[in-house]
Amino acid sequence: MTTTLLPPASVRAHRDPNVLRWLGAYTSSMLGDNIYYLALSWAAVQTGTPAQAGLVMSASALPRAVLMLGGGVIADRLGPRRVVIGSDAVRCAAVLAVAALLFLTSPGLWPLALLACVFGTVDAVFMPAVGALPARITGKDQLARVQGLRGLAIRGASVVGAPLGGLGVALGGAPAAFALAGALIALSIPLLLSVRVRDLPAGTERGATAWADLKAGLRHVRRHRVLGPLMIAIALGDLGFVGPLNVGLTLLADHRGWGAAGMGWILAGFGTGAGAASLLLAARGRLPRAGLVTGCACTAGSVAVGALGFVPGLAAAVGTALLVGLLTGLSGALCGALLQTQADPAYLGRVTAVSSLVSLGLTPLSMPFAAAATGAFGLGPVYAVSAAVCGLGGLVFLVVPALRRAELPG
Predict the structure, then answer these.
(1) Could you tell me the CA-to-CA distances from 41 to 76, 112, 152, 170, 174 in Å, in that order?
(2) Cα dist. 214→53, 120, 350, 351 in Å?
(3) What are phi and psi of 378, to 5 degrees?
(4) Nearest one of 336, 324, 327, 323 to 406, comparing CA atoms
(5) Cβ-contact 356, 127 below 8 angstroms
(6) What is the pLDDT at residue 303?
(7) For the chain, which terminal residue's Cβ has fewer other Cβ atoms within 10 angstroms, N or C?
(8) How many whole angstroms separate alpha carbon 60 and alpha carbon 51?
(9) How many whole angstroms separate alpha carbon 393 and alpha carbon 328?
(10) Which ranges constitute the DSSP H helices of 196-245?
(11) How far apart are CA 103 and CA 260, in angstroms?
């Protein structure tokens, strides 16, 4: 059964006050997240050894991955707006509590590790709810534009969050940075309370138990002619992309002698390209033949990823990174838009949970593999293999008829 989403919004998303209130809340929350991660890493490094700091930073990964599918069920059963508000309230309280504790005493690493675990647990319900919320605040024909706006918010928060967090640390240490993060997360709550949420279409059913809802959600993904192949394409794209962007980029800058400044320029090129892709989607609202465009962008992006491992000069690397950001940013945003428009709105929390789990569960495997393979074979072959894996994701779009013909409404 496929339920039609609510009627199209009367105004475009970027002019809709309801969407803009949601966007403000999301941006504020993402700013708080970026500052939180910087404050957590700073406090952990200052308090313990590098190995202990690494454990603290990774403490959120396990609860987030283990609880993600259950979080999708909760988002669909309770409603995504309610879950996002509750998640932000818990995160705000936890961050402010640690800020006060660090200000009053020097408790060691345990509160930092506990805070990371709390964030990971809350993320397991926050991420599916965030993915399900746009379909409840605007019409189906505006979801692609909302994906573009969301991408711009993410890029803007990452650019502004780092210097804001650094300023907080410089002025008052980790406690001040944590307090700033908590204040920004808190700001999202009244904005979310003012967001109007549309009801699900009549006839939407809910299982007798959470377990029944989880099985129904997985069955919906598995049997859907677009969502099933789309999950495979997302997994392949992320698996081939994350290693070169994270570990591989550090090794590339070190091997070429570009240093941290050079790596910063390459990351800036990537961010600029990804931001341009989000802006394009936000402005246009949709692209014709979305499935085919996504496959072509992903395939071309994989070629650019492979080329990044062979460029000899910094200027060429920055230009290539800009192209990588543009193409992979476009394909990623279109994947998100297709996921939201193709899924039954009653299952969106669970569908988002599956998509997030695919990325969070598989892509970390690419980072240690990329590092070990680079030491054994060199940068060029590793980037070539990563490009091939990314290309397989694009190939799925091009060879699966349902994906290739998928369209965004508008």
Answers:
(1) 33, 9, 25, 14, 9
(2) 35, 20, 7, 10
(3) 100, 165
(4) 336
(5) yes
(6) 92
(7) N
(8) 16
(9) 11
(10) 210-223, 227-243
(11) 32
- Render the burial of 70-81: b for 16+ CB within 10 Å, e for the rest: bbbbbbbeebbb
User: What confidence score (pLDDT) does residue 88 get?
Assistant: 96
| Cα(296)–Cα(282) distance, integer angstroms | 20
- Say which DSSP state 361 is in: H
Element counts in the chain: helices (H) and strands (E): 16, 0
Asked if 83 contacts 75 with a C-beta cutoff of 8 angstroms, the reply is yes
At 133 the three-state DSSP class reads coil
On whether the CB atoms of residues 324 and 32 are closer than 8 A, the answer is no
Q: Tell me, what amino acid is at 324? A: V
* Residue in 199, 150, 126 with CA at minimum distance from that of residue 352: 126
Write the single-letter amino acid at 255: H
- Reported residue count of the chain is 410
210, 235, 236, 228: which is closest to 343 by C-alpha? 228
Q: Which residues contact 152 (CB under 8 A, 6 or more apart)?
A: 275, 278, 279, 282
Residue 403 has what pLDDT?
92
**Tokens matching residue 250:** 């550090």
**Interatomic CA distance for residues 27 and 95, integer angstroms:** 18
By CB atoms closer than 10 A (0-12, 13-18, 19+), residue 205 is exposed
Q: Which two tokens stand for residue 122?
A: 């809350």
CA distance 191 to 89: 13
Half-sphere exposure of 118 (CA within 13 A, CB side): 20
Between CA 16 and CA 137 the distance in angstroms is: 10
- What is the dihedral angle through the alpha carbons of 112, 155, 409, 288, rounded to the nearest 10 degrees? -140
- Contact by Cβ (8 Å): 9, 143: no
CA angle, corner 364, sides to 353 and 239, nearest 5? 80
The one-letter code for the residue type at 25 is A
As a whole number of angstroms, the distance between CA 31 and CA 162 comes to 9
Maximum Cα–Cα distance across the chain: 62
| Rounded Cα distance, 386 and 383, in Å | 5
d(CA 275, CA 150): 10
